[in-house]
Write a structure and sequence with these properties.
By secondary structure, the protein is α/β, with parallel strands linked by helices. The protein is 33% helix and 24% strand. It has 15 helices and 17 strands. Strand 10 and strand 11 form a beta hairpin. It is globular, with a radius of gyration of 22 Å. The chain starts with a strand and ends with a helix. The model has no long low-confidence stretch (mean pLDDT 95).
Length: 477
């Protein structure tokens, strides 16, 4: 029996209209919420002024909640859960996304996955990276998981849809484990932890190019289904992308988690796929290496070498390069003409051979545990030996914390200690977006966005609330 995927027209964010479409979709797909029902949006980063198109819109969330309540006679608990990205507290992003008003209005419980207990789930497929993976306890215990991602392009994985949205079901300690050359494998692994019961993709206004600072694209669609591979395959075709080019979708399909061939999917709804494809001509991606991406930049140049993992020796799509790209896009969101103000900066990633041929005023950031280089800077021999450890030798039970304050202060102090040096080695696997912001700020002499007045107070208040609630969860949860 073919998996069915519905593409429905919806041109505006009217919660009542969205609720009616979602109810119609559930009826056609033969599903109804029950027991502990949880909605998982994409709220990787939210701020209506600075990041207006990065997250599942509040009106979309409200429409899906309304549909669940109206179709859910068997619901025992209705909740919304997420872990926002780049170590920003989830409760801060929920507030900035407008979610808190929606949850209060509908008497729905929020679960901030950075505050609740994490539990191991066994993985048994031979293709899995690991034999277990950690997820929040509310996810493990929910009976009906509603996946409501934002339709966006992604600079590391090409697209972020229902499969990629599962990265947000892990807390910081476990999220960045394998968030490197193994990222695509990790996304496939997460599907084994808790499959979606129902999927509704917010494609009313889709996001192009980046995932944190996307360019809006009025697609006017809601995509629904019950199988993540089938939904993501249809979404790929909606923007003229070969599903096989989305590695995590290919891995998931190869494991038998769902189809990747359009012929194995019943595509229905009131918005024909051909009509969508006509509308999305010109939809833009930003899936390119950073040495190519920054080639025309006045401020940044990149040397990219080889990488240690056999399955991806030419580039690390899920790690440091993409984080640098996102960091610079965040800078451009805050300071559009940043290229005209920053000092010249060279980034070196992977194992690089030969001289860097630096300009007289150019400084160097060697990035990542796998970075290796030997050469001359300012007449001195510099050796970057690297400190790379295969992530698969690290056990999921013994992962290090990725605390926001510690990571930001650690890289700030590192920059201060090396402020008179022409080069610095930023260690990590991966080096995060927030850490890149610190290194760009210190070495290119531009404002540090981690301390921007529009965010710093609210983020830090939410951070200490998060730490307090996490302590309570560990003591009593």
């Amino acid at each position: 029996m073919k998996h069915k995927v519905l593409i429905m027209k919806c041109d505006d964010y009217d919660p009542r209209r969205i609720a009616d479409i979602v109810k119609e979709g559930m009826e056609e797909l033969g599903v109804a919420p029950k027991g502990k029902t949880m909605l998982k949006p994409n709220c990787v980063l939210a701020h209506k002024e600075l990041f207006p198109h990065a997250f599942t819109r509040e009106e979309f969330l409200e429409g899906v909640l309304m549909a669940m309540k109206e179709k859910g006679d068997a619901i025992q608990e209705l909740s919304v859960g997420e872990r926002s990205g780049i170590t920003i507290p989830t409760r801060y992003c929920f507030k900035k996304a407008g979610y808190l008003e929606v949850l209060k209005r509908h008497r729905v419980k929020p679960y901030y996955f950075d505050e609740v207990k994490q539990v191991p789930v066994a993985l048994t497929r031979k293709e899995n990276l690991r034999d277990l993976i950690y997820v929040p306890k509310p996810v493990a215990e929910c009976d009906f998981l509603v996946n409501i991602p934002k339709f966006k392009a992604h600079p590391w994985t090409r697209l972020t849809l229902s499969l990629k949205n599962y990265i947000g079901i892990q807390d910081d300690r476990h999220r960045l484990l394998d968030h490197n050359a193994y990222l695509e494998h990790k996304i496939a692994d997460l599907q084994d932890a808790k499959p979606s019961s129902f999927i509704a993709v917010d494609g009313i206004i889709a996001g192009q190019k980046m995932m944190l600072t996307p360019t809006p694209f009025p697609m006017g669609a809601i995509v629904m289904g019950t199988n993540a591979c089938a939904v993501d395959t249809v979404c790929c075709h909606m923007v003229r992308t070969n599903p096989a080019d989305v590695a995590h979708l290919r891995y998931a399909a190869e494991r038998g988690l769902g189809p990747m061939d359009l012929g194995d999917i019943d595509v229905a709804g009131d918005f024909p796929l051909d009509a969508v494809r006509e509308k999305t001509v010109g939809f833009e991606f930003c899936f390119e290496r950073i040495d190519d991406y920054f080639r025309e930049s006045r401020g940044i140049e990149c040397n990219v070498g080889t990488f240690p993992e056999k399955h991806s020796p030419d580039y690390c799509w899920g790690g440091c390069p993409g984080a640098l790209q996102e960091a610079m896009h965040i800078y451009k969101q805050f300071i559009p003409d940043i290229d005209q103000h920053m000092g010249r900066l060279r980034f070196v990633m992977g194992q690089v051979e030969g001289p860097l041929n630096l300009a007289d005023d150019e400084r160097v950031v060697f990035v990542g545990d796998c970075c290796k280089w030997k050469g001359n800077i300012n007449g001195n021999t510099v050796t970057i030996s690297g400190d790379y450890q295969d992530p698969l030798t690290l056990h999921a039970r013994k992962t290090k914390g990725n605390d926001m304050i510690l990571k930001i202060l650690g890289s700030v102090l590192h920059c201060l200690a090396n402020r008179s040096s022409r080069h610095i080695h930023a260690k990590g696997c991966p080096v995060s977006v927030g850490q890149h912001v610190n290194y760009i700020s210190a070495f290119a002499r531009v404002p540090n966005l981690n301390f921007d007045r529009r965010q710093v107070v609210g983020v830090n208040i939410a951070y200490w609330q998060m730490r307090f609630n996490r302590l309570l969860s560990r003591l009593f949860g």
